[in-house]
Amino acid sequence: MATWKIAPALAAGCAAILKPSKLASVTCLELGEICKEIGLPHGVLNIVTGLGHEAGASLASHPDVDKISFTGSSATGSKIMTTAAQLVKPVSLELGGKSPIVVFEDVDLDKVAEWTVFGCFFTNGQICSATSRLIVHESIAVEFVDKLVKWAENIKISDPLEEGCRLGPIVSEAHYKKVLNCISSAKSEGATILTGGRRPEHLKKGYFVEPTIITDVTTSMQIWREEVFGPVLAVKTFSTEEEAINLANDTHYGLGSAVMSNNLERCERLSKALQAGIVWINCAQPSFIQALWGGIKRSGFGRELGEWGLENYLSVKQVTRYTSDEPWGWYQSPSKL
């Protein structure tokens, strides 16, 4: 994700400062070493590690930083935007999400079950575009969710360096506790934990959480409305296309969304109706560097990747040249009075 920002910034001719997450800085430091090895001039790319409220806040407020591009939580994005506003500094924000995946009754259940599991549990659910709200047609809900449970329970949970690992640990102890608390809160509010929701029995240490599927969810529950950023899928049913769209759009967020149906006209209707910057049709989460990435509402604004990503780091200048030999002629020349 760092390269999503650094590559277009450098290509646009900017010097750049990269401030990685305090929890995931090592790969960004390695990127800096690679840039030194290939001969990138000193000072073109600068990597600053540290805490967000110290290093990050200082960068956001510094008068010599002309542009901020931030990926992270909506709360932090709001603070950065407030700080940047004091200097009328442009920002691009790629923030949180609570993305829906809408599954209609005409699909191949096994095929869509895998996409649903991938869309939510890929990268352990620690991705802002995770399709963590399943909205499934009531006529297939029982059978489909039963398949999902089997798919989820078949996922290999292990050390990420182990061959075949498909779900690793949560990034930190604090976030591990937050994910478990979100699951516990859902249960206390009346939701049903169909599978997961705890540490895997075979892993005695590490911040591992089993893939979790939660049903009997209402739209007022925290598990339905707030981003968990972990391997947790909340499920609701619908009866009509209109109801599905309303459920999908009933959120403060608007980053990703997915629609699963063999009816391509229906897919096209939903792709227009869903309030999100990204819509996947009969898949969930594939991204391509040629295609734009970004959200609406509290998921932020601005687009990364492709030509749109380059434009983030460019400022258009108008240059007008007068080519006529004739005077402008708006005022009467004193020499002709």
TrEMBL record:
EC number: 1.2.1.19
InterPro entries noted in UniProt: Ald_DH/histidinol_DH (IPR016161), Ald_DH_C (IPR016163), Ald_DH_CS_CYS (IPR016160), Ald_DH_CS_GLU (IPR029510), Ald_DH_N (IPR016162), Aldehyde_DH_dom (IPR015590)
GO molecular function, one term: aminobutyraldehyde dehydrogenase (NAD+) activity
Pfam families: Aldedh
Enzyme class: oxidoreductase
Keyword line: NAD, Oxidoreductase, Sodium
GO BP term, example: cellular detoxification of aldehyde
Taxonomy, superkingdom: Eukaryota
Pathway: Amine and polyamine biosynthesis; betaine biosynthesis via choline pathway; betaine from betaine aldehyde: step 1/1
Catalytic center residues: E94
Catalyzed reactions per annotation: 4-aminobutanal + NAD(+) + H2O = 4-aminobutanoate + NADH + 2 H(+); 3-aminopropanal + NAD(+) + H2O = beta-alanine + NADH + 2 H(+)
Residues covered by the Aldehyde dehydrogenase domain: 1-319
Family: Belongs to the aldehyde dehydrogenase family.
Protein's name according to its UniProt entry: aminobutyraldehyde dehydrogenase
Organism of this sequence: Pisum sativum (Garden pea)
